[in-house]
Amino acid sequence: xxxxxxxxxxxxxxxxxxxxxxxxxxxxxxxxxxxxxxxxxxxxxxxxxxxxxxxxxxxxxxxxxxxxxxxxxxxxxxxxxxxxxxxxxxxxxxxxxxxxxxxxxxxxxxxxxxxxxxxxxxxxxxxxxxxxxxxxxxxxxxxxxxxxxxxxxxxxxxxxxxxxxxxxxxxxxxxxxxxxxxxxxxxxxxxxxxxxxxxxxxxxxxxxxxxxxxxxxxxxxxxxxxxxxxxxxxxxxxxxxxxxxxxxxxxxxxxxxxxxxxxxxxxxxxxxxxx
Length: 275
Description:
Layout: E1 6-10, H1 14-27, E2 32-36, H2 39-48, E3 53-56, H3 65-74, E4 82-87, E5 107-110, H4 115-125, E6 135-139, H5 143-155, E7 159-163, H6 166-180, E8 187-191, H7 200-210, E9 220-225, H8 235-240, E10 245-249, H9 253-274
Parallel strand pairs: 1-2, 1-3, 3-4, 4-5, 6-7, 6-8, 8-9, 9-10
Helix pairs in contact: 1-4, 2-3, 6-7
């Protein structure tokens, strides 16, 4: 995870830049936001900094959006940065007709939806949803581990449902999908050692294969014990089963929350792009 995440806002309107800057800064004070009024200013920032998102309009005072986007994709620091094009023209096609780079623009946003919708879209992509709390499905049969992990989740206001058995967790997910039409859970946290009938690996395989929820649709964080001096972590088994990430017990609270935020970001970002 990057130590400093940055957002570049490119908009010729002083009022629009100010509104977006204030509202996003309020929601994510840890985010470094650079606002530019022209393409030339933006290119200077693109050369110097790495950004997670760049938003740009089409009509800038000194150049159009074509040049800025092409400049981004040719830069060393930001060639893979997400680019959101904000336009009042819903039929906008940013790249020139003879361009074969269909991935230059990450998403298009219609100005008519308003600045609040754009703010929410950006925050959702960055993993910060001010209206929807994080929802976790936590599976662990250990009373001690559950008490420690549950306390950490409560402390950071993470909503979670706890089950001891894989079968109960699967039943919960099946009901959730049937009720909502999709999976409303942001993250599954499961211990490796569950019942003798179904292990954490069995639960993960069921989620991936039977429920057809991939790494983006439902991230999974596996809890496992620290290997002994004469043991090695089975990375092939852990990731081969369909786990996004794992963390060893006893858990470190800060490490746990950072991994949760990273994995929820993956799901929310995927939802933002496919909504």
